[in-house]
Amino acid sequence: MRTTTALFILTLLHVIIPCTFAQTLSNSVLNLVRTRMNQSSTASWEAGTAAETVLELDFPQLSVFSSSYLSPFPPYSVADLQPILSIATDAVTQRSSSQLWGQDGSAGDPASLGVSVLLGNWTNAGNVDWVGAAEQQLNLLLTGTARATYGPAAGAISHRVGYVQLWSDFVYMVPPFLAYYGAITGNTSLIQDAYTQISLYRSALYSKDASLWRHVYCPDDTNFNDTGHWSTGNGWAAAGMLRVLATMKNSPYSSQFKDEQSDLSDWIADIHNGMTNNIPSSGIFFNYVDQQTTNSSSFPDASGTALFAATVYRHITLADPSDYEKIVGAAEKARQALYANGGGTHFDGNGWLMPVVNPDAFSTAGSESPEAQSFVLQMDNNWKAWTSAGSKDSAAGRRLAAVSVSAVGFVASVLMALLL
Ligand SMILES: *[C@@H]1O[C@H](CO)[C@@H](O)[C@H](O)[C@H]1NC(C)=O
Ligand SMILES: *[C@@H]1O[C@H](CO)[C@@H](O)[C@H](O)[C@H]1NC(C)=O
Ligand SMILES: *[C@@H]1O[C@H](CO)[C@@H](O)[C@H](O)[C@H]1NC(C)=O
Ligand SMILES: *[C@@H]1O[C@H](CO)[C@@H](O)[C@H](O)[C@H]1NC(C)=O
Ligand SMILES: *[C@@H]1O[C@H](CO)[C@@H](O)[C@H](O)[C@H]1NC(C)=O
Fold first, then answer.
1. Does the beta carbon of 394 sit less than 6 angstroms from any atom of ligand 5?
2. Which of 134, 246, 376, 377 is least enclosed by beta carbons within 10 angstroms?
3. Positive or negative torsion for Cα 383, 377, 181, 213
């Protein structure tokens, strides 16, 4: 009889455990994803995003998500930091005019490398003109780039060089650099600028009805608008706001920027709600979140899907927002879909995520997206951190909390029994 019960329990565990844990990526898949990220991230924003990804994964105490990011004694040596510093060195040495990395039609994208360049100075990493290059990039943004002059976004720095155009992508490329520059040099007006730029971009791009951001707004007729709710663009906006929020929160100026942090957290939640309302049953978002008919511009896109999930886990561990159960459900659904078959469904044999939007042509399907590789690694890292912090706001997290409460109760009653 006891053998039958034991067998029954073992069988039960055998069924439950794989269901709970099979939806993960092995280290060998993750390593392939990372190798592809490293080899393919050649455009300015791709390299900037890859550098940020390496920072968050391998040197977390130097990333703004750590409460000790401004410590003058980082726990890593300059030699350790080479994977980031080599990207930063390229950004400085091959810069042209005042842009990091090289001539670019985008005013905003090269600034995505600014944080790694400032890290070069912060860690005293050798004989590179870190400060000169960072200052040039900052001044180009603040005084050498056209701004919107009228309308809701008057004052917003253009994301393009040749004409004024605002892209949701900008929120990941520029404000995190401004905020970090401000925090590291003790210049709070730069931290304020980071917030102001986000707020202006939001005035131009946020669509309240959908609770989503439009992609591109050009105030005059000089170029196109993209009024669609681009999936990756919503992710860029949420991910950029998270970095600015973290930069404020983990700095000595946190109390000075309390209201700004609270706005940023609300604005991130808006995006997460808008996306959650539109998650398809497959768990993979469409390229335009609410255009769920496959055609030439909208199709299932795993890249924006990964960035969405990455930002949900991060927001919870950073800012503990309220009413996140439904959003966590969507993030878990998205992540589990991406991790199906240990990656066998959504990754090819070389570690490329699929299917993905073309990173150079946002309304067409592509293959091999460098930024998507970064998004996967950020999602995995943020998901693991959220899990080890207790999977807050998930059904599993609630079960875990209940179990620990009953465990405390059990220990207490045993102690009582022994004492009495
Ligand atoms: C790829 O890795 C090599 C070796 O660490 C490094 O020099 C290079 O900067 C990396 N490039 C990117 C884009 O990550
Ligand atoms: C460069 O680093 C030093 C500390 O090593 C810091 O005091 C200074 O503000 C930094 N400059 C910039 C522009 O980041
Ligand atoms: C902060 O940075 C801005 C932009 O570089 C500069 O104009 C301003 O003088 C700085 N403020 C302080 C207090 O250093
Ligand atoms: C883009 O939208 C703005 C604001 O609605 C409008 O003024 C402008 O003409 C539009 N541009 C194009 C090319 O349609
Ligand atoms: C794709 O389908 C959506 C939803 O039906 C529609 O709004 C959009 O205009 C279509 N795009 C193209 C290029 O046909």
1. no
2. 377
3. negative
> Nearest CA to 190 among 205, 202, 177?
177
Ligand 3 neighbour 189 (Cβ under 6 A): yes
Centre a 10 Å sphere on the Cβ of residue 78 and count the other Cβ atoms it contains: 13
Q: Work out whether strand 365-366 and strand 356-357 pair parallel, antiparallel, or are unpaired.
A: antiparallel
Cβ-proximal residues to 156 (8 Å cutoff; 6+ apart), any chain: 147, 148, 166, 197, 200, 201, 204
Q: What is the rounded CA–CA span in Å between residue 202 and residue 309?
A: 21
CA distance 63 to 174: 16
Distance CA 31, CA 39 (A): 12
Estimate to the nearest angstrom the gap between the alpha carbon of 408 and the chain centroid.
36
83: its two tokens: 């994977």
CA distance 186 to 351: 41
Spatial contact of 375 and 306, defined as CB atoms under 8 Å apart: yes
Residue 65 exposure: Cα atoms within 13 Å on the Cβ side? 25
Q: Of 210, 118, 106, which is closest to residue 162 (Cα–Cα)?
A: 106
Helix (H) or strand (E) holding 163: none
pLDDT of residue 416: 55
Angle between helices 258-276 and 302-319 (to 10 degrees): 140
Residue 297 CA, closest ligand 5 atom number: 13
- 127 CB less than 6 Å from ligand 5? no
Ligand 5 proximity of 297 Cβ (cutoff 6 Å): yes
Give the Å distance between the CA of 51 and the centre of ligand 2: 20
Q: pLDDT per residue over 216-260, tens digit each?
A: 999 988 999 999 999 999 999 999 999 999 999 999 999 999 999
User: Residues 303-344: pLDDT tens digits?
Assistant: 999 999 999 999 999 999 999 999 999 999 999 999 999 999
For 170, phi then psi, to 5°, come to -50, -35
- Please state whether the peptide bond connecting residue 355 to the residue before it is cis, i.e. omega within 30 degrees of 0: yes
Ligand 2 neighbours (beta carbon < 6 A): 118, 121-122, 131, 134, 184-185
Q: Whose alpha carbon is nearest atom 5 of ligand 4?
A: 219
Question: pTM for this one?
Answer: 0.92
Half-sphere exposure of 71 toward its Cβ, with a 13 Å CA cutoff? 13
C-alpha pair distances (Å), 418 with each of 215, 407, 412 = 65, 17, 10
Q: Is 256 in the pocket of ligand 1 (CB under 6 A)?
A: no
